[in-house]
Amino acid sequence: MNDTEALVWKRLRSEEGQDLRVFRLRFDELKNPRNDYVLKAVVLEANDWVTVVAVTPEKKIVVVDQYRFGRRCVSTEIPAGIIETGESPQMAGQRELLEETGYSTDRWTSLGWIEPNPAFLNNLCHQFLALDVRKTHEAKLDEGEALQVRELTLQELQEEICRGNIRNSFSLLGLSKVFDLWTDLKYADF
């Protein structure tokens, strides 16, 4: 029998911390159910996120290349972004796809949601499949964005993964929910 209730830590108090624009700090004082040890945990509160696996009528996958400040490198990813307060996950996916790439479609399927890192984040990442996407507008980037849009065949996508050019975990998981990415892959250093 799996009794997960016995693993739940009791929250003794919470204290709001600094608002960091994308994240808000929260400090929770928690009691360990195993030994009553009291821990002050740091939690980053954030709006939920969304990622979109966008596929053209020609079966090409839309990806974006953009500079990521945390890793100080250019990252190849599927379109993604923050779900604004009051916005549904699908509406956010549609908005992000259009803003980042200029592509749109009416064919949307939810791929479910994942937990980005429940150890210290409180949010979810919703994932969608968008089929038959077409370039219908010019991209409308935020002030803090600079990116390049590309369309890749499945083989090109697999080659990019094998070369280590696609490393973003949310992108890899979203793509893995749609495509068999790992069959017969040849890794250079493997």
Structure explained in plain terms:
- The protein is α+β, with helices and mostly antiparallel strands and 190 residues long.
- The protein has two domains: 5-45, no CATH class; 49-177, Alpha-Beta Complex (Nucleoside Triphosphate Pyrophosphohydrolase).
- 17% of the residues lie in helices and 39% in strands.
- It has three helices and twelve strands, in the order βββββββαβββββαα.
- The longest helix has 13 residues, at 89-101.
- Keywords: Hydrolase.
- InterPro entries: NUDIX_hydrolase-like_dom_sf, NUDIX_hydrolase_dom.
- Its cofactor is Mg(2+).
- This is NUDIX hydrolase.
- One of its GO terms (biological process) is nucleoside phosphate metabolic process.
User: What is the fold named in CATH at topology level of the largest domain?
Assistant: Nucleoside Triphosphate Pyrophosphohydrolase
Helix/strand structural class: alpha+beta
Number of domains: 2
CATH evolutionary superfamily of the largest domain: Nucleoside Triphosphate Pyrophosphohydrolase
What is the average per-residue confidence, as pLDDT, rounded to a whole number? 94
Give me the number of helical elements. Answer: 3
Query: What is the correct CATH architecture of the largest domain?
Result: Alpha-Beta Complex
Number of strands: 12
What coarse outline follows from CA principal-axis ratios? elongated
The value of Rg in angstroms is: 19 Å
The protein's oligomeric status is: single chain
Helix content range = 10-25%
CATH class of the largest domain, please? Alpha Beta
Uncertain regions: pLDDT < 50 for 5+ in a row? none
Biggest sheet record: 7 strands, mixed
Helices and strands, in N-to-C order?
A: EEEEEEEHEEEEEHH
Strand content: 35-45%
